[in-house]
């Protein structure tokens, strides 16, 4: 595990690291085996050296485009269900996008100029979303003594690839001059880079396995969820999430349909239908419409974008990389 002393002068270090400019929307630098957005290195230094955790902090983690938006909505609705009943017409998720209700951790610090105070006024428990690989998190988050808990969701690499490619094209076309805007960015190019691990916080499979291994070692610290399992049994996984973060549903709540109400409130179809998610915008180091975060929210849509040969190539790369790890993306129901 990386220590804070290893993350000093990150702004000076970043320009010396291997650079990748073929994968929009950000220039990437390779650091400790992962390709990280160049603009986040100062934030990494702040997170390691100055950010103060609270024992009640809950970090919602995943590789980009693996269920971030849905996990944020479910986590927010679950933690705040007493103050904001899920059936209420004025529920924050009906008025604000999930990314406004649960802020991105490292991009928010970067946008604040590297300030560690950006979350200081947030009431406890703080729900924060991160794409940082587990091995790059500071010890004051990962240590048992911190009290912090981490919820991780993973997704099939093929769906992750397609979703990332489509989102990158939208972000690159959003009129932000600081973003990479290649003349063309085909799915074939995206596949080649993805297979080489050259994508935001990639390689994806290593990102996933680090959190999975920690969930096996310390299940009380890291909850590992699978996007596909969540789609099959959303209520069961919401209850699992609630138990893990210390907000279990009572028998009375379950009988009153609170779990089902949260599932319905946070469903992709419902969130996508809200005006704020049709016309609102989000600032995450660049400006992008909320609607870009709501595409289909299904499993297996990759088949509409990549050929069987392309799928086989990615499956082969991932299978070889996972050899001996004990982890499989196609496992069902093993995160109980």
TrEMBL record:
Pfam families: Sulfotransfer_1. Belongs to the sulfotransferase 1 family. The keyword Ribonucleoprotein does not apply. One of its GO terms (molecular function) is sulfotransferase activity. Its EC number is 2.8.2.-. Residues 55-326 form the Sulfotransferase domain. Keywords: Transferase. This is Sulfotransferase. The keyword Transferase applies. InterPro entries: P-loop_NTPase, Sulfotransferase_dom.
């Amino acid at each position: 595990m990386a220590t804070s002393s290893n993350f000093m002068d990150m702004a000076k270090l970043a320009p010396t690291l291997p650079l990748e400019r073929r994968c929009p929307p950000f220039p990437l630098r390779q650091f400790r085996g992962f390709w990280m957005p160049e603009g986040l290195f100062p934030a990494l230094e702040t997170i390691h050296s100055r950010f103060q955790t609270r024992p009640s902090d809950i970090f919602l983690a995943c590789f980009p485009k693996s269920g971030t938006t849905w996990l944020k909505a479910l986590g927010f609705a679950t933690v705040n269900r007493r103050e904001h009943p899920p059936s209420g017409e004025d529920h924050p998720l009906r008025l604000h996008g999930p990314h406004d209700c649960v802020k991105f951790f490292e991009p928010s610090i970067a946008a604040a100029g590297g300030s560690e105070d950006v979350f200081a006024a947030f009431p406890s428990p703080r729900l924060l979303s991160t794409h940082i690989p587990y091995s790059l998190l500071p010890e004051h988050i990962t240590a048992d003594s911190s009290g912090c808990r981490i919820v991780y969701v993973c997704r099939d690499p093929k769906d992750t690839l397609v979703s990332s490619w489509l989102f990158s094209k939208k972000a690159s076309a959003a009129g932000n001059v600081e973003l990479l805007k290649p003349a063309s960015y085909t799915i074939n190019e995206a596949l080649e880079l993805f297979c080489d691990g050259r994508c935001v916080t990639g390689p994806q499979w290593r990102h996933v396995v680090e959190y999975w291994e920690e969930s096996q070692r310390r299940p009380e610290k890291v909850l590992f969820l699978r996007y596909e399992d969540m789609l099959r049994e959303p209520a069961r996984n919401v209850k699992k999430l609630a138990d893990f973060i210390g907000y279990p549903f009572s028998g009375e709540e379950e009988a009153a349909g609170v779990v089902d109400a949260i599932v319905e409130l946070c469903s992709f179809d419902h969130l996508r239908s809200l005006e704020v998610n049709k016309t609102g915008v989000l600032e995450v180091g660049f400006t992008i419409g909320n609607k870009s975060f709501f595409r289909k929210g299904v499993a297996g849509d990759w088949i509409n974008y990549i050929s069987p040969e392309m799928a086989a190539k990615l499956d082969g790369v991932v299978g070889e990389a996972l050899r001996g790890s004990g982890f499989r993306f196609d496992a069902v129901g093993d995160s109980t």
